[in-house]
Amino acid sequence: MRFKGQRLASMTRAGLSLVIAITAALPVSAFLQVSRAGAAIPPASTGGFTGVSPFRLLDTRNFGSGPCLTGERSLAVAGVIGSDVPSDAAAVALNVTVINPAGSGFVTVWPAGVSRPTASSVNYSAGEVVPNNVIVAVGGFAAVTLYANAGCPHIVVDVVGWFASGSPAQGGLTGITPDRLLDTRSAGKGPCINTTRDLQVAGVPFTEVPADAAAVALNVTVITPNIPGYLTVFPTGSSRPTASTLNYSTNQVVANGTVVKVGTSGSISLFASGGCPNVVVDVVGWFAPGTPTSAGGFFGVNPYRLLDSRSAGQVPCVGGTRTYHLTAAGVDGSAVPSESRALALNVTVTGPAGAGYITVSPTGAQRPTASNLNYVAGQTVPNGVLVKVGSSQSVDIFASGGCPDLIVDVVGGFAASPLDLVSGCTASDLLVSACSTFIQSSIAPPSTEIGAVDGASSVSADGRYVAFAAGTTTQIFRRDLFTGITTLVSHSPGGSLGDDSSYTPAISADGRYVAFTSDAINLQEVEKASFNTEVYRWDATTDTVLRLETGIGGDEANGDAWSPSISDDGNRIAFLSDTDNFVVSPLYTNYALIADAFVIDVTGGTTILASRTPLTISPPDGVDSAVISGDGRFVAYETVDPLASFDTNESSDIYRRELSNNNWEWVTRRPTGGPSAAGATQPTISRDGGLIAFSSTSAEFDLNVSDTSPTQDIFLRDMSSFSITRVSVAPNGFILNGDSYSARISASGRMVAYLTDATNAVPSDTAGRTDLVVRDRTRGVNTRANVAPNLTESSAFIDSPVLSADGKYAGWNTASSYAPGDADNASDSFLRFLASDISLSNISPTSFSTSSAPTVTLTGVGFADDALPVVDGQGVSISNVVINAGGTTLTFTLAISAVDSIGRHDIWVRNPGGASWSAAGAAAVGRTGLLRVG
C-alpha cells in the first residue's frame, strides 16, 4: 500500500465484512498442500488487504489504559503482541468507538509523526456511543495518533486488518491526504440532496485520485436532515440498489466510511430517501484499476442486500441475544466470488428493544471482545465492516442484547491468492466439481520452497490446522488453511529455529497444541545437558514450547522419547520411551531399556506407565507403537510380548489399557478366542476408545469370508464385543488383491483411511500405484483420496496417510507436483476434502399451510452428519436439523410466514465443504421442488 502526501487523515471505509456462515469454503474436491512455509502473516500483494480476527488495542475504560481522551495520544497498532498485524504493515483497518462523551465533538485518527489533519474520523454528541470504521496509515514507531477536540470521551480501538506496503498491484489501495469532494452547505455546491445526484470522484483536478481508479474509499456524513431516511452511495450508471450506506434521524449528524466502485465518467451517485440532508463527502484513498489477481486486491460490486431480518424471518432470540451465520461469497446471485479472502459490508442495526453491541468475526474463530457498532433501544445505527472470511467462506454476526433487526449489504471483497487456484481454473470454474482448489503449502510466496516434508503430517479435527515436519534442518510447522498462516512450532524461547531436527508432530483437535519429537537442545530457557531425543508440546495461544518427559525429582529423562500421540484437548500425550526414571514404583523394571508406552497428563503433572498389564509391570520385549484415544481414557499399543496367557503366536498383537484403572484387554484375539496366526500391527483408535483398527495378514479375523490370500488387510475391533470386521474390501465386498496398511480412523469410527497396493479397491485403478482409500463404513463406500487435481487417476507415489477426526479430510505426502510452483521434486504434504454426493429422492409431506411449523423429512443418500438444508424464498426458516446414522434421512422444522411464503419452494441440501448451492456442476447438492405452501 502506498500513501502519498505529508499528512493523512484517517481513512474511514465501510462495508468490508462478511458476516454470516452457512456454506463451506472448499469445492467438491479440494486439495490443500499444507507444508508451505512463509511468514506468520498470510501473503498479501502490495497494497493488498489481509483481514485478522478483531483484536482490541485500546479501551480507556480499563484500568491501566489511561483516562478518557483529551488532546492527542499515540497508540501502537502494528507488531503488537497478540495481534496478527506485522510490524511492517503500511496501514491498518480500525474500528474506533467513542463512548459517553461529556459534550459534543469529534475524534481524528492519523499516522503518528505527522501533523494533525483537519478531517475528522468520528463525530459525537454528549452521552452517545458512536463507532466508525477507519483506515489509517501506520506512522512512526508503528503507531497512529488519536485526538479528541472536546467532551473527554472514552475510546475503544479494535484492529480488523492491515494493508501491505509497496506500490499497489491491481486492486491495491493507495491512501491520500483527505480531500473534500462535496459539502452541500458551501456556496456553489448545490442544495441539500433530495433525490439522486452524481459526483465525480476520479480524475478531479484538485485530488490525487487518478481518472482510472477502480474504486474509492470515502467518508460520508449526513447533516441535520428534516425527517428520518437513508443515504445510498453506488456506482454511476448502475441501477440503484436496495442497499443503504447510512441511516439517519431528524436533525442527526451521522458519518460512515464506505468503499464504492467508480462508475461511468469517474463518478458515483448519491441518493437520499427523504429529509433533504446536507451531505459531506471526503475521499481518503483509491484502489488501482484492473482485475485483482493478487492476494488482497479489492473488487467493488454494485451494492446488494444480503440480509434484512425484518423480512427474511427471525433468528431465535435467546436472552436478548442473536447470532446470525451468513455466507456472502460464492452464493447464487452474488458478484463476490467464493475464493474471496475478506469482504466489505455495510451493517445496520434497527429497532432494538434494548442496548447492546454487534460483533462481526470470521466463522470458526473465537468471538473477540471487539465490537463493530453499539446501539440503544429504538436506535438505527450503520457502520462499515472489514472482516476476513472464516471457515465455510463465512463470518458470524453476534448481537449482545435487545433482539435487534439486522440489515447487511455487500459492497465488495478482497481477492484470494492466485496460488489458491488450480492452474487453468477461474473463479467461475470453482463452481464446477471437475475443478479443484488447493493451497500449496510448501512454498513461501512467491516461489521459495521450504524443502522436503519428513514423515506424516497431523491434522486438526475439522481439517483447519495441519502440523508437519519439513526443511533443511527439519523443523515443525503448523499451517492454518483458512488464513494461510504458517507458524514455526519448534523454536527456542527467543524464536530461533531448533538447533537440531524435530519430527512426528501430533496436533490437538482444535489445533491449539502440537506435540512433537526433537533432538534439539535449545527449545527451553535452560538447555538440556543430555543429547537425548525428547517429546515437547507447543501451545499456539502462548507460543511456548514445553518439555514433557521429566524424570523423577525434576531430573532430565535418562533415555530417549519419541512418537507422541495427543488427546483431543491436548492435555494427555502418549509416547514411547526407553527411560527408566519416569515412574516411582518398586515394581517397575525397564528390561534392558526397552521402549514402554507412557502418558503425560500436563494439567495433573503426572506420568502414567500405560503399557503395564495385570500379568507384568511392562512388556519385557518392549512396545512398538502406542496411540491415545481422543477423550484421553485409553491407550492402544503394539507389542510382541505374550501379555495374555493364551497369546502364543509369538507375533505382535494389540492391547488396550484404560488409564483410570488397571483394566486391560487383548484387542487382536480371534473372534472365536485365542491368538491369530500372524498377529497384528499399526493400531489406530476412535475418540471414545471403543473401536480400534489395525493391520494383519491373518485370515482368522474375518469369519464371513474365506481368506486364502497372504496379503495384509485392515480390520476393525468393536471393543464392546468380540466382533472384528474387515475394512479393506472391494466395492463388491471381495477381498483386496494387494496389501493394505497404515490405517487411520475418524473420531466416530465411521471413516477409516488406509494405504493399499490393491487394484480392486476402487473402480478403474490402472496406474499400479499405492492409493489412499477412505472407507465409509456406514454407507459401504470406498473413495480414492489421492486423485490428481483434475480428479483423474494419479500416478504419483504417495505415503504417510492422515485423516481428520471428522472424517472429511484425508491427506498424504508425495514428491509429485500437484501444485503450481511446486518444482523442487521434494516430498510435500497434501489434504483433500472428501465431499459426499447427495441425492434426494423424496420429501414428506409436500405441502403445508401458512403460519405453521411442520417437520419436513427428506429421503436420499449421502447426507453428512452436519449436512445443511435450505428452503428458497422469504418468510421461511429452518431449525432442529437431524440426520440419521446412515446418512439416508434428514428431518428439520420449517417455520413458515403467512405473508411471504405462498407458492412453490425448492429445497436444497449441501454437505459443508461441498459444492455451491447452485445445481450447475454441483455434485454435492441435491434438490427437490415438491414443497408447496398455501
Describe the structure.
This protein folds into 3 domains: 2-414, no CATH class; 442-449 and 459-495 and 506-609, 7 Propeller (Methylamine Dehydrogenase, Chain H); 839-933, Immunoglobulins (Immunoglobulin-like), CATH 2.60.40.10. The two termini are 55 Å apart. By secondary structure, the protein is an all-beta fold. Helices cover 0% and strands 41% of the residues. Strand 27 (443-444) and strand 28 form a beta hairpin. Residues 1-44, 329-333, 417-449 and 913-934 have low confidence and may be disordered. A 5-stranded mixed beta sheet has the order 1-11-18-13-16, with no helix packed on it. A 4-stranded antiparallel beta sheet has the order 2-55-54-53, with no helix packed on it.
Strands, count: 63
Neighbour order of strands in the largest sheet: 1-11-18-13-16
Distance between the termini: 55 Å
Count, helices: 0
Low-confidence stretches at least 5 residues in length (pLDDT < 50)? 1-44, 329-333, 417-449, 913-934
* Rough outline: elongated
How much helical structure, as a percent, in the residues?
under 10%
Short overview:
The chain is mainly β and 934 residues long. The protein is built from no helices and 63 strands.
